[in-house]
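ok so I'm stuck.
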Amino acid sequence: MKPMNPQDVSLASLLGEARDALARHEPPPAVAQAMWSAFDARLSPVLAPRRGPRIAAACGWTLGAALAMASVAALLVDPRPPEADTTRAIATTFLPVAAPERWREFSEAPDVQRAAWVVDAELPRASLAGMGLPYDPARAAEPVRAELLLHPAGDVLAVRFVSE
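replied:
not stuck anymore, here's the structure
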């Protein structure tokens, strides 16, 4: 191969020279025939006799059906949490009902020791009078919704009234 000026050389001419060089380096015909026979022997498929439905096909259909059912089930289940109730209850502030020293002890305790529970309750309407709140005596037997603030010891510390 003679040195050429890179500007005079085309890709087609270079590929043509490479093709000619490879053609001169072919194996002898007997070696080529032996290689092709070995390739054909290795690549020829071995067919097994058919004996009813194949296990892989049966498993494939079963797996496909199971995936289809799971997909339908996933579409039917709504992943969103239920919507919160949009109606707001109106509540008073907590009115202390415990003794003043007990309420002061609770309210001045550090946050770690200030444990309490809020419990829903229904109280007779007449209990409003005991707390100095106005009420209609004609409706004294009707219950009123309330939330009680309970100390871990079980004492009622405060109450607040809730109306919807």
